[in-house]
Design a protein that fits this description.
228 residues, alpha/beta, eight-stranded parallel β-sheet, 8 helices, 8 strands, isomerase, manganese, Aldolase_TIM
Amino acid sequence: MAVQINPSILSADFARLAEEAKAVEGADWLHVDVMDNHFVPNLTLGVPVVESLARATDTPLDCHLMIEDADRWAPQYVEAGAGSVTFHVEAAAAPVRLAREIRAKGARASMALKPATPIEPYEDLLAELDMLLIMTVEPGFGGQAFLDIMLPKIRRTRELISKHGLELWLQVDGGVSAETIERCAEAGADVFVAGSAVYGASDPAEAVRALRSQAEAVMARAAWACGH
């Protein structure tokens, strides 16, 4: 089970997205936050920018859709070039059907939970997913402080994944930095979205390497990872 670091372009310079994507080419994925000013109180980018980014970088795109009517829009992001598409369960009318459609179109299907949304009601859906995203801040803005109260939820989610023997990635997004990534890894996360911790650094590529090293060191001795 490998650590994955996904820099978030929400913290990048939007006037230089192609260059900013190249600055983190050692990353596993490029995390693309799509916000519609309805599901969350912010507006970022959409399908045309994802299409352009997909042409500008060899790093696969991890699109996180913080939008209403995810059932309608999520498949379009696969068509735009995303390798992974995350929809919020709070915005999906038929999450199982949507996950299957994303997979059928050739991308990894991921489901996100806001901080107040519990994981337990969705235990039976986990087998339909390739990744689950636990938000460690309220979605909508970059640069927020990490919510430590999400760590027990990460642990419970990892326990459910192990219980069912699933090869399911567990992603965390929000306030992930050198100060918080080790706690996330110890709790059970293996995919880490980092925005300002990467793009706010003088050397974004080195920041990616440093975060990866921190998480790998913890995972090597974490109880949840020892059986994998």
